[in-house]
Design goal:
3'-5' exonuclease activity; 7 helices; Nucleotidyltransferase, domain 5; about 40% helix; nucleic acid binding; 3'-5'_exonuclease_dom; disordered N terminus; hydrolase; alpha/beta
Length: about 210
């Protein structure tokens, strides 16, 4: 891992993408407030995974109460393998993409995370509904190993199940996610949360089923 004081994020100006480094892996990350860019990301995802059941890491970061009494979701993070989308919902330049609505309701995709149903509830404020394709990976881990994961969170699950060391800085957790230009610390935090969720979900719902 990189020095804890410095976020491991690289920006590629030629592609307008960020690359978040995590234990030797580069996570290609698209950050946008534009509906058209989100549509293109989803189009590429469908092109690659069409017709295949696919796990998707899902997370949201919320607005501070001073900006939103209900603490609306400021951003939505989606991750599959080493590709991540950070959609700035609070700054969308157009209506919520219809393709995003279809994607979240598509039974071919299973959306995973820790306490992920809290995130999907937040998405309803933007007219986004997930179907019955949402799985809390902490619930699965507790079911399979009740003593091992009874008091766990995402960080512990990531380390124990997929060997991923996560940095969870409380200042970043409680930072202003409503800002237009996210800091590198915020980008790393948001990306890794969804990335970890994906790999935990993949292990529990795909890999373990194949070997059972």
């Amino acid at each position: 891992m990189a020095d804890a004081a410095k976020p491991a994020v690289i920006y590629n100006a030629s592609t307008s993408k960020y690359y978040v480094m995590s234990q030797g892996s580069a996570i290609e990350t698209t950050i946008t407030h534009k509906a058209t860019v989100a549509d293109e990301w989803l189009h590429q995802l469908y092109s690659k995974y069409s017709g295949r059941h696919t796990v998707v890491g899902l997370d949201t970061e919320w607005m501070l109460r001073i900006f939103s009494p209900t603490m609306k979701a400021a951003i939505l993070q989606l991750c599959v393998e080493n590709t991540c989308l950070i959609l700035q919902l609070c700054h969308l330049n157009d209506d919520v993409p219809e393709n995003l609505k279809k994607f979240l309701a598509d039974p071919n995709f299973t959306f995973v995370g820790v306490q992920v149903k809290n995130d999907t509830k937040k998405l309803r404020e933007y007219g986004l509904e997930c179907g019955n394709n949402v799985v809390d990976v902490l619930d699965v881990a507790k079911r399979d190993w009740p003593e091992r994961f009874s008091l766990s969170g995402l960080k512990h699950l990531a380390k124990e199940l997929v060997g991923l060391e996560m940095r969870k800085n409380k200042k970043v957790t409680m930072s202003d996610w409503h800002v237009r230009d996210l800091s590198y610390e915020q980008i790393e935090y948001a990306c890794i949360d969804a990335y970890a969720s994906y790999w935990i979900g993949h292990k529990l719902l795909v890999e373990d089923k194949l070997t059972s």
